Amino acid sequence: MLNKKDLKQxxxxxxxxxxxxxxxxxxxxxxxxxxxxxxxxxxxxLHCYSEVEVAGLAAHFDxxxxxxxxxxxxxxxxxxxxxxxxLFEFMESYSGTPEDIEKxxxxxxxxxxxNFFTNIHKFAFYNQLKQSLKxxxxxxxxxxxxxxxxxxxxxxxxxxxxxxxxLPKGLLLFHDYEDGPRLAVEEHLVxxxxxxxxxxxIARLHLTVSPDHQQKFEEAVATKKRKYExxxxxxxxxxxxxxxxxxxxxxxxxxxxxxRNNDGSIxxxxxxxxxxxxNLNDLxxxxxxxxxxxxxxxxxxxxxxxxxxxLIGGLLMKLQEQNFEYLEALEDGNVSKEERxxxxxFAEKEMNIFFPPxxxxxxxxxxxxxxxxxxxxPMRVCGMVRNEGEPGGGPFWVIDEDDNFSLQIVExxxxxxxxxxxxxxxxxxTHFNPVDLVCGTRNFKGEKFDxxxxxxxxxxxxxxxxxxxxxxxxxxxxxxxNGTMANWITIFVETPLITFNPVKTINxxxxxQHQ
Length: 515
Known about the structure:
Blueprint: H1 4-12, H2 17-29, E1 36-39, E2 46-47, H3 51-64, E3 70-75, H4 85-93, H5 98-106, H6 113-118, H7 126-135, H8 140-145, H9 149-157, E4 173-175, E5 182-183, H10 184-195, E6 202-209, H11 214-232, E7 235-242, E8 249-250, E9 268-269, H12 276-281, E10 287-291, H13 299-332, H14 337-351, H15 364-375, E11 379-386, E12 394-399, E13 405-410, H16 420-427, E14 431-432, E15 436-440, E16 461-467, E17 470-476, E18 489-495
Parallel strand pairs: 2-18, 3-6, 3-10, 6-7, 11-18
Antiparallel strand pairs: 1-12, 4-5, 8-9, 10-15, 11-14, 11-15, 12-13, 16-17
Helix pairs in contact: 3-13, 4-9, 10-11, 13-15, 14-15
């Protein structure tokens, strides 16, 4: 199946042939569905804290934050093009005829072009768009009055003007302020100044970006950071990385043979955001906050989001402190039956670690080994938001092929909705995942975990794509907070809806929480 030229291409990407063979095998066999046991709820597996408890954990974070090396990790490589799908379709079909105008005015739904143009003055990029059109000899107000929307969109979306559809989300203007509008990446700088600053006053951020946009990100951060360094009396240390070529995945045709480009080379595709575990693994942060690039709010709403960031950070610190103390005792090996009982109670109740029925029959050293191995793993505390619509992916108890139970963040695509039992479990779920995580990536000796050792390779996604008019199968690695962190110690905490404010379409910026 693979010739000498293929093997050379694979080697040049830093991939070993055995990895490609496993990928092809996954195409042939598919990935098994996750076996759900129950949703994680406040009765089992989801911590829900009172206002007093939230304040206490946030205070613990503030008191101990200087003892840790902090890092804010922001996946920022995604292009913004999908945000503009409705506007692109409108631009292609609209020509200003009476019929077009009638159709335009008939749809006044939230994501409609009508809503975009009617409220265009509310967007943070409004003045920039106005100037871009003025530079080309147009008046935005005149174009709006004449309903000449096509010209506006050409200067907004494509290279004629602002080229917003070619930019990543992090480089779009999200929010307006008296001292000027802010890019999404600027809002992350402000956040970093508030909860990822160490005792030396250094706020560390790391962004994963695409090769096409790295220079623009670096220029934007270099230009903007001085303003916030002065305002918040911090020094920013911002680093960038690219998704590694070694995490790319082979594409295959519908017969599961390698899909070839016109020159005969094999087509490899990026492995999805699960590949970012490699980037995370290369970093030195001791406590790492993870948050998506588009999940930010203006300053007037930041206070509550910061409180809950400190809540999950403070909880991680407290749990780690106790866990490390127990691990030191376990490594020593001299742990009494009573002490093992205390450690088990902590592991089960506080860290959701599953103990098989056979554990009670283990001898003393077997119990110590079990406790040590289960507790000596990277830890993540994940904020979970209450479902307000149809339940979908989120926090669940799952069971693996060895009958071990664990808490996992499960995506809808991993669930077999044709199974009535699995569908019923999903319908009972109360929370979903807003991608609000804080991670402990070092062991009790202060050494970095090799995060690649804690991935479940039997999770992933297969989809149908096309290239050059030919159909192909594409595969993605396990999601970063799904199978890629499957073997981490996982803690779920209820956080309020204000912590979840993604911008999936351009009109999401018109929502009250972004104004």
